[in-house]
Design goal:
Number of helices: 10
Largest sheet: 6 strands, mixed
CATH topology of the largest domain: Rossmann fold
CATH architecture of the largest domain: 3-Layer(aba) Sandwich
Strand content: 15-25%
CATH class of the largest domain: Alpha Beta
Strand order of the largest sheet: 6-7-8-3-9-10
Radius of gyration: 18 Å
Length: 254
């Protein structure tokens, strides 16, 4: 793949007392790719996402994003620079409609306070953008529905929409299909596939079928270290990955 590097992690260390959650992690995410991060429970995946998004500060190491050192950059500045995390950009307002939720995200991206949503109602341009995002994430028929009345899968689609409304260069997704049934998972998978080439994705996901269908490249994290990075076929056949995570009985259908 000839794409340039959008995100580069160099030697990231984060410890909790005597436990080293990330142990000198080095990882690159290429512009335009879908990159999956897999590993057993407790491998450090969520800690790594927290470090990238700015929720946590590393004890050592460096994070470069789109040519800028963001290691100590606050969350809001990372968002403004084009780094979005689906459930972190804003909360879903359960008592507002799908369209109002998305209009607020559009308004926030334009640099206005999200605490006062009434002015957004009068801005036809922002509502037009909000409707486009609703259509983009498969909620065009639910724009008038209260967000709190959506199904679990639809709420996750709305969370992706809220992040997309900020027009991110990189979208971080932490288990986007968690708690979904087969039909909801398939809709989310199709949505994420449709984003290929539109924005870069880094996702943590335990559904290996989804990972192998979605990812251009996969990195495997075990005990805070990246033990392998490669294409789905390379990861599927990697002996250390099979031993540590996939298991010897993991087949090509996984």
């Amino acid at each position: 793949m000839s794409h340039s590097t959008l995100l580069q992690l160099d030697g990231l260390v984060k410890s909790y007392g005597g436990l080293r959650a990330t142990d000198h992690v080095c990882l690159s995410v290429l512009s335009g790719e879908i990159h999956a991060l897999i590993g057993p429970n407790g491998a450090g995946k969520t800690t790594l996402i927290h470090l990238i998004s700015g929720v946590l500060a590393p004890d050592a190491g460096r994070i470069q994003f789109d040519g800028m050192d963001i290691t100590r950059m606050p969350i809001h500045a990372r968002v403004a620079h084009g780094l979005a995390r689906s459930f972190q950009i804003t909360s879903i307002f359960n008592r507002l409609s799908v369209l109002d939720n998305l209009a607020l995200a559009v308004q926030a991206h334009a640099g206005h306070s999200m605490n006062f949503w009434r002015p957004a109602r009068g801005d036809a341009g922002r509502y037009a953008q909000a409707f486009e995002v609703a259509e983009r994430v498969g909620l065009g028929l639910q724009i008038k529905q209260l967000a709190g009345a959506l199904s679990h899968g639809e709420q996750r689609q709305l969370e992706v929409g809220l992040a997309l409304a900020t027009r991110p260069k990189l979208l971080l997704l932490d288990e986007p299909m968690a708690g979904m049934g087969p039909d909801e998972s398939e809709r989310m998978l199709c949505l994420l596939q449709s984003l290929r080439g539109e924005t870069t994705l880094l996702l943590v996901e335990h559904d290996m079928n989804a990972v192998f269908r979605l990812a251009d490249r996969i990195s495997t994290l075990v005990s805070g270290r990246v033990i392998a990075c490669g294409t789905p076929d390379e990861i599927r056949q990697h002996p250390e990955v099979r031993l540590a995570y996939l298991g010897d009985d993991e087949k090509a259908t996984a």
